[in-house]
Structures are given as C-alpha cells and as structure tokens.
Specification:
Number of strands of chain A: 20
CATH architecture of the domain at 113-330 in chain B: Orthogonal Bundle
Radius of gyration of chain A: 26 Å
CATH superfamily of the domain at 113-330 in chain B: MetI-like
CATH class of the largest domain in chain A: Alpha Beta
Oligomer: heterodimer
CATH topology of the largest domain in chain A: D-Maltodextrin-Binding Protein, domain 2
Shape of chain B: globular
Number of strands of chain B: 0
CATH class of the domain at 113-330 in chain B: Mainly Alpha
Distance between the termini of chain A: 24 Å
Distance between the termini of chain B: 6 Å
Largest sheet of chain B: none
Order of helices and strands of chain B: HHHHHHHHHHHH
Number of helices of chain B: 12
Largest sheet of chain A: 11 strands, mixed
Strand content of chain B: under 5%
CATH topology of the domain at 113-330 in chain B: MetI-like fold
CATH superfamily of the largest domain in chain A: Periplasmic binding protein-like II
Number of helices of chain A: 15
Helix content of chain B: over 70%
Chain lengths: ~575, ~325
C-alpha cells in the first residue's frame, strides 16, 4: 500500500513536470504565498475598485469572460463569447445573449444560474449602492434570464462593443442567495458577505483580515478536474514595493509579488540572486504629458484654465512638437522604468491592432530639429539668458505631477532636455491623494490643471478604447460650470475630432473601429494636445519554484491561478 | 488621592470632547479624498456616487454628531453586548463607525490589529526596559569608565539611526545573507505548542531588536542622568557614613529614588505601545495599529483615522493621569489633597 502510494506520488510529480495540465490530484502542491504590498481591503470588487481588491477577489469570484494576455476574450462562466456571427449579439447591436456553462456550482454546493447574473447587475445598478463598476454597465436597460442558463442584456443604444458587463474581474458574478439582503444602502454594512463572498472560482476565503492577510483554501467543488494545484493561498499585504521584490527575489519567502515599481537597477540586482524572475505585461497604460491649451495664469482669477483664455504658446502645435522632439525617451525608460517601460509615441499604444505608427518621429531625440521648429515659430533668445521669448512672453512652463520618486526623476531629466532647446521649466509635485483626489477646494487637482504641463498615467478598462478616446471631445473640457469634473485635461477642442468620435460610436465593423481609433490618436499627437512618454507595463516577480504564471495586463494578473503549480 | 483622581477624571471629559472636535474638524478640513486611490479611469459621477454612499454628502455638524453617537453610544453598547452576550435595544440596525476603505467596523479592525502590536511593540518595551535599567545604573555608578563610554556610544547610535535604516540593515544581514530570521511577519501564525511558540519568537526577533534599540537608548540616558543626580545627594553620604554596604546604598536608596522619574517616563510611553510603530511595522509587515493608521491616512479613510487618533488621545490623557498618581504613590513628599 505504502509503496504504491509512493509510486503514485512520483508519477504525479513526473506528470506535473512534463505537463502541468495533467496533474493528478487537486491541491497536491500545498501552499502558495502571494505578496501584494497594498493589502486588500475587501473581497467585494463592486465596493472597492482598487486593483488589489479586484485581483485578490479574482481567486474567488469569476465573471462570464476574462481577457487573456493578448487582450482576447476567453469564456469563463459562459460557454462561448457571443458575437454577431454566432447570433449572440443582435443585428441592431442593442442586445447580447450569454449562454452559461452547465453544471457549475457555487462553493457552498448550490447551482450557479442565470438568476445570479441578473442579481449581480441589480446589485451594481442600485443607485444607493455606491458601486464603482457602473461604467461597465453604461446604457444597460435590462438584464433578464431567458432560462436558467441564458442571460440577455439589453442596451438603450446600439453598442458596437457590448462586452462591458461581466467581462473582466472587475465585474464578476456574486451569489444571489448570499447578497440578496445586501443591496443598495445596505451594501457597505454587510461586512461578513463583503469579506467572504461565496464564489465559483478555484479558491474560497477561509480568513480575511482587512488590509493585512487573507487565507484561501481550495474550492472542492471547482469545475475543473484536478485544479487548483495548490491547496491553499496565503495572500499577504503591507510594506513597500522594494521589500516585496526582496521577499521573492532575495529571501524566497514569497512565491509571487505584485506591482514592483522599483528603481530598475535595484530590481535587476535583486534578480541576480537567482531565486526568482521579474516579469512584465503591457496593457494600455501610458505615462503622458498633458499640454494645457488654456491659460493657467492666476491673474485671470476665476477664469484661469478655462477656454475663454487660450494658452499664450502651447496652442501652437509646432512648440509642442519641439518639446516632444527634445525628449530622449529611452533615457527616461532606463532611469525610471527598466523592464516596466517602453518608449511610445501614442496615447493609445495597445492592443496591437490599435497602435498607430504615424507618430514614430518622436522615438528618437532630435534637438536640432526641435530648435529649428521653435525658430520657425518665431521664438528666439534675444536677450541671451538661455530662454527663448516672443513678443515679451518667455518660453517658460510650469510642469506638475504627483509626488513619486520616479516621476520626480523624470521631471528633472525633462527639465534638462528642455533647457537645451531654450525652454525654462518650473517643476512642481503634489501629493497623489490631492492631485488625483476630486477636492473642489484644492487648486492642485489634475482636473483643474493650473499649470502649463502635467504628467500622469492613464489607461482604460478592457480592450475597447471607445470611451477612452471620447475623453478629448469639446464637451469633456473641465470648467467651473461642470465643477471641473470631466476628462479632457488638455482642454483640446476640435470639431473634426468630435465628429470622428461620434462616428466611432455607431461603427461596428472591427477593422473600421481600429482605423478610427488610430486616426483619433494621430489627431491628438499632431495637434499637440498630448505628448506620450512611456508605455508602462505591470511588473511582478515570481520565484523559480512557481510555474504556470501567465501574467496579463488586461485583467486580474493572477487570473489563471488554478493553473499555477510547484516546480519540483 | 481618591478625590484628586475623581476630579481629574471628571476634568478629562471636557478635555476629550474638545480634542474630539479638533481632531474631527482638522481631518475633515484637510485635503484628501476617499476615492483618490481608485483607478483613474473611474468617472467623476461614479466617484460622486461613492462619496455620497459613504455619507460625505451630509454637512459637517451632522457627520460630527453621527460620529459622536457611533463612538460614544453605539460602540460601547456593542462591546457590552459582546461581553455579556445580551441584546440591548435595536442592535441589528445600530450603525457602528464604518471604515471607508474596508466598509467594516473600525473597532473590529483595531481589535484584529491589537495582538501583533502588543506582541511586537510591547515586547520591545519589555526588552528595552530590561536592558536600559541595569545599563543606566552601572553607567552612572561607574561614570566615565569604559563601560559608561561604550554604553554612551551605543545609545547614541540608537538615538541617531532611524528605524527605516536599521530595519532594512538587519533584514539584509539576517534575512537575506544569513537567512536566520524571516523578513516578513506572519500575522496568521497561531501559537499552540512549543514549536509554534519558537516560530513566533523567531519572527519577532528582528522587529523587536530594531524597536528595542531605540527604546533602550532613550531610557538608558534617562536612568543614568537620574542616578547621577541622586548619587551626589547628601543622604547618600549619610548612608555611607552610617557604614551601609555599597550594595545597599545603591540598590536600596539611590535606585529607588532614581526610579521615580523613570517610572513616569515609562508610564507616559504606554500609549505609544498601543499606537504601534508606524515605520517598523511597515518594514517588517507586522500590520499592527501603526500600519492601520498609515494605511488609513493614505486611503483617505477619515472614520478610521479619526477614531484611531481619538483613541490615542484618550490613552494619552489616561496615562498622564496614571503617571501623576504613580508619582504620588512612589514619592511620599508629593501629596495632591
């Protein structure tokens, strides 16, 4: 008996090495330790929206479909991805019908049905619930169960890209039976439910310590045979990115560490200890300079930063192009990002099908051409102080960003590069919680943008950039009238751009949509509204003893944890 | 003494009310936004909805009143219910102070964090005191000896090296290079038997070492100065003239008198044990009260920060009183009534 069991284990280990998919027994690999230096606060992604919460809860809760590392959709709880071709999406683009997998059960043993999907939508759409995934449910008019395993989502308008609700781990399915009494204003009070949701995923919450540690155990009822390979997960939070990297790469205490925004030379030095690997995945995040097209001069009082007063020189696309050409992006990547960054000239660099090649002139620094452009535009250094001027206006900019050592490093480098072409730069940094916080009384928010140039990273959810590209239309300009709440930070206004965005919203053919998105991107670059700097990836590290990691930037990066295994 | 204590306790009530108002108002006026940590692509309308769901739409005095009621009425009632297992009034619908980032009761979070803070920071104090007292006594008795000079040198290092340096240094030496101790504190570890107790000691050594170095440094200097003050007093000469042994002079007379100010200092430091050690906890991921506070500040979690800060205020007021009373008990020359 003993002997045969040994053989079995050996065989299992062998099979594991050869092909992890054929691993024998569920949970045979023991515990995996994951470190997220920002600790999860809740397991209910609808009430949080923080990456740490969405990704940790992805071990438990699942959506209908996920995105793979290439940005393609893969069915999770659905049988297939509904499309126009297979009849899942209606001809008029106003509804989508999902077919659910048969035989899926919740971890408490009850069956998963269409009623749970309908309930999840009700939960998030309740006006008093404070659900932050509501943008994914934009224009949804009804979600109904056709039968136990078919759900029809109807939209109020034609949706060329109807994959908002329940695609991606930020809008998963929650169990109706568990959350029924937690809807609306009651939502935040349901601590037990929010900390321990019942899910269909590979793991279950065993113990949740908010902002500290989560212990997961495998879900015995998980639908895939022999998975997950690990029997438990220790999900620790706290500390900082450098310490997290150290615990995987140097001490080997943890198997996986997330979001390692650490100076690249420190990271590569840690990696040389040989205990683990640094990995990266690129999504749509771009570190960019927003160019203020309006005048932020404090002398203008209440009208500063509004379209009533155009910027004295940044409205000139030639000046902006010169600023862009003066920057050597390769150095910015090397100094601050390493594996986590790539040079980009597009505000929309991914998915690949959407990436334009028309702006590649910015990839190489060209100081001479930048100088020539400024000369051409009439900016000359007449008084010999190293700063160009024209009609009594100096080419001097205030350049702001959030407080963060990498950003301050980038600021300093760019200031130097601009000094070379005769542009004076005053640097400013603002605490992230103020800069990104929507506090109306603060003059330092990124929406008010009381500076000439500001730098930050933005991206979009999922793989469809329609809403993202719609950020730079005239009606999205922040102003006192809309309490500075809007997305068009550069205050860019171009009727042609607006018309193309309107056309985008009614175009369904994928190739045509991609062409429009590229054109919109190119317009922003040519008119000098945005100067993209770095295509930023997510960086993580995993120990050499952990296999099966398939990091994605389009969804929860630990989306395939059921396939992770111990390298023996 | 008793009347004095009662009077001080009564006086503490208006003090704490004023403190609570100041804390609430200051934090409320400070810039910051609970939705600032959300991904940037969440639109402003949704952020506004979230803020309203958190109760931020209400005017200041309503929120202050609500918080006062939750903190002074609802939470104590809840504690009573848990202790005695009874139900008082409408406990189902009684609103507790809820954290914005976790949407769970703040008091529960604090209770969850308390054990590791008391273990690590408390133990550091115990270790620090155990080292500091004898070192201080010997340093003073043998002033300017090699022992005193070495002690002064080490305490100066303890004073001047911040924990964010010494913490990382010990991790690099003992975790990365030697591999003796873990660099990450496991808060889920439960002590059940001898082996798990050893593991607990093992994971506590590094953070306790870093914290104890600082505490020892401060207390040693204090103990030494206080001993020196007393060693030159007339009563010491008298005791020696009476022919008492050096041991009796130092340990019975001088030490007892020197302990009076030191004990006050120790008592006043007790609130900071509960306050946790913000930096050291962060470095070793102890995730105690200090980490809770700093996380709350970063996330703009006002109810959490307000409640924690106010609890610290209560502890400080309370232990000031304790220190004063101890002073009266230890030193017969001081009488309050």
């Amino acid at each position: 008996m003993k002997l045969s069991r040994k053989y079995l284990l050996a065989a299992a280990a062998g099979a594991l090495l050869a092909s992890p998919a054929l691993a024998a027994e569920r949970g045979a690999d023991g515990q995996v330790n994951i470190l997220y230096w920002q600790a999860p606060s809740t397991q209910n992604p609808y009430l949080s929206g923080g990456t740490k919460d969405i990704e940790s809860s992805s071990l438990v809760l699942e959506p209908l479909a996920n995105y793979d590392p290439a940005g393609e959709m893969l069915p999770t709880l659905a049988v297939e991805i509904p499309t126009l071709d297979n009849g899942g999406v209606s001809e008029d683009l106003t509804s989508i019908t999902w077919k659910l997998k048969q035989g899926v059960v919740w971890s408490d043993g009850t069956p998963f049905t269409a009623a749970d999907v309908v309930f999840s939508a009700e939960y998030c759409l309740h006006p008093e619930g404070g659900c932050n995934a509501t943008p994914k449910f934009a224009d949804v008019t009804s979600v109904e169960a056709i039968d136990d395993h078919t759900v029809k989502i109807t939209f109020g308008v034609a949706k060329p890209f109807p994959y908002g609700p329940f695609v991606g781990n930020d809008s998963p399915i929650i169990q109706k039976a568990q959350f029924e009494s937690c809807i609306g204003a009651k939502a935040p009070e349901c601590t037990t439910e929010n900390f321990g949701p019942i899910g269909t995923g590979p793991f279950m919450v065993k113990d949740f310590k908010a902002n500290d540690t989560i212990q997961y155990v495998m879900n015995e009822t998980y639908r895939e045979e022999g998975k997950p390979h690990f029997s438990s997960v220790l999900f620790k939070g706290g500390g900082d990115a450098a310490a997290a990297a150290r615990s995987v790469l140097e001490t080997g205490e943890f198997d996986y560490a997330w979001n390692l925004q650490v100076e690249p030379e420190i990271l590569s030095q840690m990696e040389s200890a040989g205990k683990g690997k640094v990995i990266a995945a690129f999504g749509p995040s771009v570190e960019r300079l927003m160019i203020n097209k309006t005048n932020p001069d404090p002398a203008l009082g209440d009208e500063r930063g509004t379209v009533k007063h155009p910027h004295p020189f940044l409205t000139d696309a030639k000046v902006v192009r010169a600023l862009s050409l003066a920057i050597e992006r390769e150095i910015l990547v090397e100094a601050g990002y390493g594996a986590a960054g790539k040079v980009t000239c597009n505000v929309l660099p991914a998915p690949n099908a959407y990436a334009s090649t028309n702006n590649d002139w910015c990839k190489t620094q060209d100081v001479e051409q930048a100088k020539a452009l400024l000369d051409e535009a009439g900016w000359n250094d007449t008084d010999g102080d190293g700063v160009r001027e024209k009609d009594g206006v100096k080419l001097s900019v205030i350049y702001q960003t959030s407080t963060n050592s990498v950003r301050q490093g980038t600021q300093a480098l760019i200031k130097q590069m601009w000094a070379e072409i005769g542009v004076e730069t005053e640097l400013k940094n603002i605490s992230a919680s103020v800069f990104f916080g929507g506090d109306q009384s603060s003059p330092d928010t990124f929406q008010k943008f009381f500076a000439d140039i500001e730098m930050y990273t933005n991206n979009f959810n999922g793989t469809d950039p329609e809403a993202y590209m719609g950020s730079w239309t005239c009606k999205q300009i922040p102003s006192p009238e809309n309490q500075w709440v809007a997305n068009n930070m550069p205050r860019y206004c171009n009727a042609e751009y607006d018309a193309l965005v309107a056309k985008y919203a009614i175009t369904a053919e994928p190739a045509e949509r991609q062409a429009i998105a590229k054109k919109l991107n190119d317009m922003l670059m040519e008119d000098g509204a945005i100067v993209p700097l770095i295509h930023r990836g997510r960086v993580a590290a995993h120990s050499n003893a952990l296999g099966g990691v398939d990091m994605t930037a389009w969804d929860s990066e630990i989306h395939n944890i059921e396939n992770w295994y111990r390298v023996k | 003494m008793f009347r004095y204590t009662i009077r001080r306790l009564l006086f503490a009530i208006p003090t704490l009310l004023v403190i609570s108002f100041i804390i609430f108002a200051l934090l409320d006026l400070a810039p910051g936004d609970p939705t600032s940590q959300l991904p940037i692509n969440i639109p402003a309308e949704v952020r506004q909805k979230i803020r309203e769901a958190l109760g931020l739409g209400e005017p200041f005095y309503v929120r202050y009143g609500l918080w006062m009621q939750q903190f002074f009425v609802n939470e104590p009632l809840n504690i009573l219910e848990q202790w005695f297992g009874v139900t008082i009034g409408d406990s189902e619908n009684r609103l507790r102070v809820l954290s914005w980032s976790t949407r769970s009761p703040v008091v529960d979070l604090i209770v969850e964090r308390m054990p590791q803070t008391l273990w690590v920071v408390g133990m550091a104090y115990v270790v620090g005191i155990a080292i500091a007292l004898p070192v201080g006594v010997i340093s003073a008795y043998r002033q300017y000896s090699i022992f005193d000079q070495a002690g002064t040198f080490i305490t100066m290092i303890g004073f001047s090296i911040p924990p964010f340096f010494s913490g990382v240094l010990v991790i690099v030496i003992f975790s990365v290079n030697l591999g003796w101790f873990p660099s990450i504190y496991d808060t889920t570890h439960v002590v059940t038997d001898w082996d798990s107790f050893l593991k607990q000691i093992n994971q506590m050594i590094l953070p306790v070492m870093v914290l104890a170095l600082q505490i020892t440094a401060q207390l040693t200097r204090f103990m030494r100065a206080s001993m020196l003050d007393n060693l030159n007093q007339d009563y010491v000469r008298t005791a020696r003239a009476k022919g008492m042994s050096e041991q009796a002079v130092v340990l019975l007379h001088v030490l007892r008198n020197s302990m009076i100010p030191v004990i006050t200092v120790i008592a006043l430091a007790v609130p900071s044990i509960f306050g946790g050690a913000i930096i050291t906890e962060q470095i070793f991921k102890v995730n105690g009260i200090g980490a809770l506070l700093i996380g709350g500040i970063e996330a703009g979690d006002l109810p959490l920060v307000q409640t924690l800060t106010f609890i610290f205020a209560v502890l400080i007021v309370l232990f000031n009183l304790v220190a004063d009373i101890l002073y009266g008990i230890l030193d017969p020359r001081i009488r309050y009534d």
